[in-house]
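Let us practice reading a record.
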Amino acid sequence: MTAPAPGADGPSPRPRTAQHFSVAPVLDTPEGYVAPGMPGVPVTGYTPDTPTPRRRAPRRRTALALALALLATLLGGLAYGCAPLRAADSLGWLTIAQAGLVALPLGRLGGRNPLLPPLGALLAAGALLLGQLTQHLRLLLATTPTPHPLLPQTLTGWRGDLRPLDLAFYAIALIGGFLLTRRSANRT
């Protein structure tokens, strides 16, 4: 059986030319119907006018962060300086812990303030300096029984005892204080 030629038995049920739609035509389908193979389920009850609750930005307490960082500098320096004197050669690597101790309150409480990472670097190096000066003061008090002006003797003893490895520890304190402050600020 062959198909009739167009116009031979009347009009053809097919359109003469193909119809092109810029948007898919609306089909007569029941609401909620998803054709097989189509992803997702239709969303019901969506109202775009309802406002979504805004997430509040964390509150920054820069003054408290500075106070805690200064306290951490003092405590870290005193802990470094009061360590046993026989372990003085291996203590330089603890400057990473001092930098972390200073950086944690600065970053967590102070936030992303651009002045805090350089301040964290300086405070970490200050903790190392305070620790080394405390070590030299303890050594001076242990060897000299008579009270002399201790600060000038402590400073000259510290300057005379500086080694290249100490400069590396100061560099570690500066870099570690800066990076750890910035990293702990980004985690909030």
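A brief commentary: The mean pLDDT is 78.
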